[in-house]
Amino acid sequence: FFSRLIFGTLYPAYYSYKAVKSKDIKEYVKWMMYWIIFALFTTAETFTDIFLCWFPFYYELKIAFVAWLLSPYTKGSSLLYRKFVHPTLSSKEKEIDDCLVQAKDRSYDALVHFGKRGLNVAATAAVMAASKGQGALSERLRSFSMQDLSTIRGDSSSTVPPSVTVRTSSKQSQPKTSRSASEGTGSSGK
């Protein structure tokens, strides 16, 4: 793993940097061919690892292949590029470009479609949560007694007696004891 990382990726990346910095076209083209072959190798490796990992010396062969690609003596990446990749891509370039344009258009349309749906779902969820949350909060607050509210607030020395509760209905605004006292004085006065 580390040898492939160092020799297959970091070493070529550094020399690609040097080629770009020096503006040497020959070196630049050499490293571009390497990166194209290495990208194809990495893609193929994803599938071959699944099926060929049991093969004896499979990983050693992969390391040897990367060394062959890099070697200035074998010029493996240049050979593969010129013999196979360039002719194949040149003959299929129009179809590949058309396919990429269609995929780009479809992905953009899908992104816009799902983006709109996602925003609609999020807006609906926010409105529903706000409306339900507001109603639930007011119902919850109505159910508290003054004792409960003073306990939540943390006042241990509350001025409100524990038997007095907050009533929200206008029918219950007058205590029962007051009514019975006024009814009692009203009936005795007759």
Automatic annotation (TrEMBL):
Q: Where is this region: Disordered?
A: 151-190
- TM annotation in the entry: 31-57
**Primary localization:** membrane
User: Does the UniProt entry include the keyword NAD?
Assistant: no
Q: Which residues form a coiled coil?
A: none
Indicate, by first and last residue, each region the UniProt record lists as having compositional bias (Low complexity): 156-170
Please provide one cellular component term from the Gene Ontology annotations of this protein: endoplasmic reticulum tubular network
Q: Where in the cell is it found?
A: Membrane
Q: Name one GO molecular function term.
A: microtubule binding
UniProt KW keywords: Membrane, Receptor, Transmembrane, Transmembrane helix
Q: Of which family is this protein a member?
A: Belongs to the DP1 family.
Protein name (Swiss-Prot/TrEMBL):
Receptor expression-enhancing protein
Organism, as annotated = Balearica regulorum gibbericeps
